[in-house]
Amino acid sequence: MADYSKKNRIDSQWLQVKPNRWDNGMHSGERKMLYDILDDDESIMSLVGGNFRKDTDRLLYHKGIAVATTKRVIFVDKGLFGSTEVMELPYPTIEGVTYSTGLFRGGVEVKGIGGASYRLEDMFEKDSMRVFADCVREHMNRPTTPTITPVANVTQESIPDQIEKFHGLFEKGVITQEEFEAKKKQLLGL
Question: Which one of 21, 60, 101, 176 has the minimum C-beta count within 10 Å?
Answer without folding.
Answer: 60
